[in-house]
Amino acid sequence: MPSTDDELRKLKQVLEIPAGKEWESTVRLLLHLMGENPSREGLRRTPLRVKQALQFFTSGYRQDPAKILNRSFDVKQDEMVVVKDIDFFSLCEHHLLPFFGKCHVAYMPNQKILGLSKIPRLVDVFSRRLQVQERLTVQIAEAINVHLKPLGVACVMEASHLCMMMRGVQKQNAKAVTSSMLGVFRSSEKTRAEFLTLIRSSLVG
Global pTM? Predict the structure, then answer.
């Protein structure tokens, strides 16, 4: 079975795409297929703009979650830490359309805590990739679980998906809610209920 690199090499040869211009040439081709003229004034710089936008939207592939979580602080802290209402956006891997919303993360420390800014940064790393919301939720929780080794981690995400709003069922007010509960958040109903109570106002809103 040919590799992705082999397929890209053959495609570049067939389309006569010059080296270093793969992004721009691909966007120009898409514009042609849409029935547009890529050379008209309003579209001349569109290939470059799309390249820059997509590289930013997928910048998480070039970031390492381990480097974000590599520093923690030793403390005698055994109460829940919650960071809620973290704004995020991502691209649905099925249609390359955005989904966006809020992420709520909690963990029960096991003598170590993270700097609070690390959690939103971690959310950005995983959300700035081609994603499905279910996997994104699990990846955030599991990364904290692996690197911090807390007593438990919880992650809840709620999002609006343009692939449901602009096409398909076209439901503008529907939201998807996903969760990942690890450790005491899975085994203790009391701990899980406390977390859900703390973020409930965000979920209702």
Answer: 0.89
Determine which one of 24, 133, 155, 158 is catalytic. 133
> Does the annotation count 92 as an active-site position?
yes
CA distance 58 to 137: 17
Looking at 92, 103, 104, 131, which residue is catalytic? 92
**Is residue 172 situated within a structural domain?**
yes
> How many domains, the chain?
2
Among 36, 63, 77, 95, which one carries the catalytic annotation?
95
Is residue 32 part of the annotated active site? The answer reads: no
The CATH number of the domain holding residue 104 is 3.30.1130.10
Q: Which of 119, 50, 115 is nearest to 88 (CA)?
A: 119
Looking at the fold, whether 145 and 175 belong to one and the same domain comes out as yes
Q: In sequence order, what E strands does 76-115 have?
A: 81-92, 98-108, 112-113
Please state, in angstroms and rounded to a whole number, the distance separating the CA atoms of residues 186 and 200. Answer: 18
- 103 flagged as catalytic: no
Give pLDDT tens digits along the chain (205 positions). 556 677 666 666 666 677 778 899 999 999 999 999 999 999 999 999 999 999 999 999 999 999 999 999 999 888 999 999 999 999 999 999 999 999 999 999 999 999 999 999 999 999 999 999 999 999 999 999 999 999 999 999 999 999 999 999 999 999 999 999 999 999 999 999 999 999 987 665 5
- For residues 22 and 114, membership in a common domain is answered with no
Token digits of residue 122: 């971690």
Residue-number span of the structural domain to which 15 is assigned: 4-57
Q: Do 103 and 176 have their domain in common?
A: yes
